Fold these 2 entries.
Entry 1:
Amino acid sequence: MPGTWTHEFKTDLFKGSAQVNTGLFINGKWVDPVDGETIDVYNPADGSVIGKVSCGSAKDIDLAVNAAKAAYKSSWGLKVPGFERGRLLYKLAELLEKNADSLAAIEALDAGKSFQHARHMDVQDAINNLRYYAGWADKTHGQTIETTEAKFAYTRHEPIGVVGLIVPWNFPLMIAVWKIAPALATGNTIVLKQSEVTPLSALKLAEFIKEAGFPDGVFNVVTGFGQTAGQALTEHPLVGKVSFTGSTLIGRKVMETAAKTNLKRVTLELGGKSPTIVFDDADLEQSVKWVCAALFHHSGQMCAAGTRIFVQEGIYDTFLRALAGAAASIQQGDGFAKSTQQGPVVSQVQLERVLSYIESGKQEGATLVAGGARRPGAGYFVQPTIFADVKPDMKIVREEIFGPVGVVVKFKTEEEAIEAANDTEYGLSSYVYTQNVSRAIRVSNAIEAGTCFVNVGSVLCPQVPFGGYKQSGHGKEMGEYALEAFTQVKAVHINLGMNL
Ligand code: NDP
C-alpha cells in the first residue's frame, strides 16, 4: 500500500502537522509504482533526509497516460461544459486557500524556501492562477467567419487531449499550477511529472484535486526521474502536447524527442541570463531594493533572475557600494525562522554547481564585491554574491548559474547598454530602472526578451503572459495567451445548399 509522509511543524511561523500521500496518483487512486522503487526527499536547510516518495518509471507513465486518455474520452474534454470545469477550478482554489499555511509549510521545507515567501508568493500565486483560469473555462470559444452566402464557417477551440507537464524544483507548486489551470480550464487531461527533488506539494495538490471532485483520471501525478519518467512522457504516442519548464539543455532534448515520436506540440519555458539596466536617473534606494529581489529571491534559483546588471557610469560607484551592502545584509537561514530572507539552494548538486561558477569568476579575474563562498555549517547555503570588473566572455557573464550570483558592468550610453543586454543566447526577462518614461519605453522595446519590468523586480500576475524569446523557449504561460498553448483550432465549413 502507498505510504503517507507526516511531518510535525513546531516553528514560530507555522505550527501543525502535514500529511502527504507518497504513492503515485493515477486514475484517482494512490498506487505504488510498478517497480516498487522510492526516492529520498531532502531538507535543503540541513541536508537531512525527511522522507521517501515513489519513483515512477516508464511503466507508471504508461498507466497514467492511458488513464488520462480514458478520462478524456469519457468524462472530460468538451463533454463537460466550461462552467462546470470552471466550478471545479474555483473549488480547487478554495481548498488551496483553506489549506494555504500547511501547503506553504510543505513547500518551504521541501524546496528550502522562506515560509513567508512560500505562503504569500508561491501558494497565493497558485490560488490566483486557478481563479483566473476558472473564469476563462466557459469563455474560450471560436468565431463564426463570413465567407460567401453559400457557406457557413466557424471555428472551435478544442482541447488537445492528454497533455504531459514537466515541472522543475524551483517553484514546484506555482509552475505546476501555471500549466494545470489553463490545461484543465480548456478541457485537457493531465499527466504531471514533478521534479523528484521537490515532489511533496504536487502530491498534496493531487489530494485537493480529488477532494474538489474532478473525475478520476483527469489529473495524474507521477514522481520520478527525468531521464526515465520524464523521457517516457515525452515519447508517449498518446500524449498530444508537452509543456516543459527547466534547463535549455533538456528543453532541446524534449523537442527532439517530440519531433522523433508523434510530433506532439511542445511549449518550453527555459533558462535565462536576464539583463538589468540601471540609468543615472534611477531612484537609487528603490532600484537597489528591486535589483536585489530579482537577483536573490529564492537564492537566485529563478529562470527570470536579473543576473547581468548594467549600471550607468554616473552612479556606478554609488550603486555598486549600495548593492554590495544590501547583498551582505541579507539574512540567510532556515525558512521557518522569522528573520530569514534567503534560504539555501535546493540540493548538494546545485550547491556544487553554484560554487564552481563562483570559483570560475575568481579564476577568470573578476572582482568579488560581496559574498563568494558557502555559508559555514549545515545546509546548502551560498552567500549572496556580486562580481564587478567582468568581461563579456567570462562564464559567469554568459551562462545561467541558477544561484545567488550577479555580475555588475559599467556603461556610458543607452545604445551601449541595449547592445550589451542583448548579447546573450537567452531572452526570458529584463529590467530597466529610470525615471524617464520615454527612455523606459524605448529600451523595453529594444530588448530581446519576452518580459520587461520597469522600476520593479520580477512580480508576475496571472493576467499577463510570461515566456521567452531566443533560447529561453517558446509559447506563453499565464494570461489569455496560455489558452492557445492548450487548445487547437478546428475550422468547420458548411455548405448551405448552394453551388459553391
Ligand atoms: P532540468 O532541465 O534537468 O529539469 C527540469 C525537469 O525536467 C525536471 O522535472 C527533470 O526531472 C525533467 N527532465 C530531466 N531530463 C528529462 C528528459 N530527458 N525528458 C523529460 N524530462 C526530463 O533541470 P535541473 O533540475 O537539472 O537543473 C539544472 C539547471 O537547469 C539549473 O541549474 C538551471 O540552470 C536550469 N533550470 C531552469 C529552470 C527554469 O525555470 N527555467 C528550472 C530548473 C532548472 P529530474 O528532476 O528528475 O531530472
Entry 2:
Amino acid sequence: MSTRAGFPADFAWGTATAAYQVEGAAAEGGRTPSIWDTFARVPGAIADGTTGDVADEHYRRFIEDADLMASLGVNSYRFSISWTRLLPNGGDTVSQEGLAFYRALASALLERGIRPYATLYHWDLPQELEDAGGWLVRDTADAFAGYARIAARELGDLVTDWITLNEPWCSAFLGYASGVHAPGRRTGSKASHAAHHLLLGHGKAVAAIREERPEASVGITLNLYSIRPASESEADVDAARRIDGLQNRLFLEPVLAGEYPVDVLDDLGERAWFEEQPASDALEIAAPIDFLGVNYYSRHTTAAGAADASGAASANPGSESVRFVDTGADRTQMGWEIHPDGLLDVLEQAHAYAPELPLYVTENGSAYADTVAPDGSVDDPGRTEYLRLHVDACAEALHRGLPLRGYFCWSLMDNWEWAFGLSRRFGLVYVDYETQKRTVKSSGEWLREFLTGAVEAV
Ligand code: FCB
C-alpha cells in the first residue's frame, strides 16, 4: 500500500513531453528543420503518414497546458527544447522568438509552482548537422556542447534542472542501425560511433552548463530495460548479456564508471575504433553528474536464435541473432510487456555503479487505444493500472533505500509518437487532434487523487 504521504515531501511528481511530439509550429519564429522534420516526410517512415508540424499546438497552447498540469497537482514538468527553435540552422545565433517561447513556458510553470526540467536533446538534431555527418562525426559533440552553453546562459535563471540527452540508445541504434528513427540510416555497428559521440557531447555539455551556471543540476536520461534470459542455458544467458550490454551497460558504464564494457565493444566488432579515440574522451564522458534519469517501460526476455531473415536492419548490430521471447505477460498497445518489478531492477542496476547518485524516473507510461464516451469522458483503466503499479514500485524503491527523487509520467497528453505518428496515445490527457480539445482521462484523475492523498497506489 503506498500513498503520497509515504513519499518525501520534496519528491518530484511530474509529467513529461518532448518538443517535436507536442509543440507543432514547425516553421514559426525562425525554427528550421531537424532530422525529424525531414524523416517524417520520407514515404513509409511514419505509420500513419503524419508529421509533427501541428502535433498538440503546445507552442500556442502552453498556458492552457500549464493550467492542466496545475489541475493534476503535479509539481514538476519535463519538457525538451527544440535545438533549431532556439538556434535556427544549428548555428550560434539565438532566435529571440524561440527563446521567448521557452522563457514564457518556464515562467508559466514557475508561476504555478511547477519546477521545469529541461531536456536539451530529445532527438531533434538540426538538419545541417546531419548533412555534415550527424552523430557519426565528432564535431557534432562540440556543436551540442555549444548549444547547451547558450541554452544555460539564456534560460538558466529560470531553469536549474537540465537533462543533456534523452535516450542516446535510441538516437544511436534506432537512428543509425535499424533506421526506424531519424535520420533513418543503416550503418550497422557504426551506430556505436554515434553512441560515443552522443556521450561525448553529453560530457562536454555538462562542463559547458557548469561553466555558465555553477548552481545548475545536470543529468542524463537513459532508457534502461530489465533483461533476463529465457532459460539458464549458456546460449540464452549469453543473449541476455549481449542485450543488457548494448541497451544498458554501453551507456551506464562510460557515464558512471568511466569505461566502456569491453565485451560489448567486442560483440559489436568495434573495439579497435573505440581504442583509437582520444584517451581524454573517457574522462569527459564520465564528468560528474547530479542525477541520473531513467526511462523505464518494459522488460526483455532473451534467447539465442537464428538471425532474422526478413532483411530488416537490426537495432542490435553484432547480436542480430538474439530472439525476444513472448512470455505471455500482458502488453500495452505498443506490444511492450507490463512488468513493474523491472523498474526496481533497472534502478538497482544503475544504483550499483554510483551509490550516492540521485535517481529520477524521467519517463514511464503506457499506450492504449482510448475512446471518447458519448458523455465526453475518457476511461482508461489499463493506463490507470499501469500507473498505479509503477508508482507503487517507486514506493518500494524508496523502501529499499534507493535514492529516488522523482517520477515523471509519460506523457502529460497524447502526442506525436515518432514512427507511429498519431496512432499511439500515451497521455493522461486525451487530445482531439481535429479540435485540439484536451480532456483529462481517468488515469489523470487517478493521479490527481493520488497526489491529493485521496487514493492509494495499490
Ligand atoms: C520514449 C521516448 C518518448 C516517447 C516514449 C513512449 O522512448 O523518449 O519520447 O516516445 O518512449
